[in-house]
Each structure stands twice: as structure tokens, then as C-alpha cells.
């Protein structure tokens, strides 16, 4: 009985840091497929504590478009990734959210959209809303075949400083994963 209870406790704690996708909208337009979503999650306590000490946290949004196939497993026809970096500037007491289509590097080179916020809740609110994100070109989508979109939002542990990566292994206080799948409607006039 005690062994069962010990095995159950970490699972419950890991689930506590999972969020949910409150809304997932997919639009098929002439130039491609667009995703809009609203996420609901709480930042893990350890991540928030590290942020307040000035250590940036990195997040990844991924969307995969899978084409239905009856004779084999579904085939991936498109993939889009968005990288986010949330940081706190202790001297100015401001939060900064940077968004990029490429992973952040230590060189500082690359293109990223940056926004400043006075409050952590405002920065998290901006992270939790995605509006009209183009995830596939129209040429990749077949009008007469069904498609499934798989969306994930997670904390990217691989970009944390090494001591945090080593200390986070096996600790559920760092877990953050939000995912959901949705079906892309067939175009009007298709089978």
C-alpha cells in the first residue's frame, strides 16, 4: 500500500503543472493555414523563482500538420515552431518577452520581437494568446483530404544554464507541457 502511494504522488504533482488549451481555432485561407489559441497554465514555481533572480526562461510552441492516410500512418506535411524567451530585469523591475522563429543564441544575433511589461501576469497573458499564426502554406494542404493539427507548448529545459539542467532532471517542479490536437475542416466543394 505504501509503495502504491509513493508511486502516485509524483504523477499527481507532474499533472499539477500541466495546463490546457482553452481554445484552438484553425483557419484555412487562400495563402495557408492559421492557428489561433488561448492557453491556460501556471508557471512552475521553480521557473518563476529562477526568473525573479534574473535567469531567463525559454519556451517552445510547435504545430504539426498531419495528412490523413488510410494505408499507413499519417504523414507530416508542415511544421511551424515559435520560440519565446521570458526574462526579468531586476534593475528596472520590468519583464521582457521575446518571440522568434529561430532558437535564441548567446550571440544576440537574430530577429526577435520584444515586448516589455510591468507585471509578470501581463507577460504571461501575452504568452498565452496566439493570434493568426501561419503554420502551413496552402500548397502543403490537400483540399480533398483530412488533416490533423497537433499543437504543443512547453518549457524548453535545453536552453537553461547547465546547473539548472542538471538540477531539473527528475524534478517535477520544472514540468510545463500544454498540448492539443484539432481537425482542419475540408474546403467547401471538396469531397
Provide tags for this entry.
3-stranded antiparallel beta sheet, 191 residues, 6-stranded antiparallel beta sheet, 43% strand, disordered N terminus, alpha+beta
The SS-based structural class is alpha+beta
The major pleated sheet works out as: 6 strands, antiparallel
Taking pLDDT < 50 over at least 5 consecutive residues as the criterion, the unreliable ranges are: 1-16
Q: How far is the N terminus from the C terminus?
A: 56 Å
What characteristic shape results from the CA principal axes? Answer: elongated
Q: Please tally the helical runs, counting DSSP H or I stretches of 4 or more residues.
A: 4
| Nearest-integer average pLDDT | 80
Q: Rounded to an integer, what's the Rg over CA atoms?
A: 19 Å
Q: Helices, strands, pairings?
A:
Elements: H1 2-16, E1 20-29, E2 32-40, H2 45-52, E3 57-67, E4 75-89, E5 94-100, E6 113-117, H3 120-127, E7 129-137, E8 147-155, H4 162-168, E9 177-184
Antiparallel strand pairs: 1-2, 2-7, 3-4, 3-8, 4-5, 5-6, 8-9
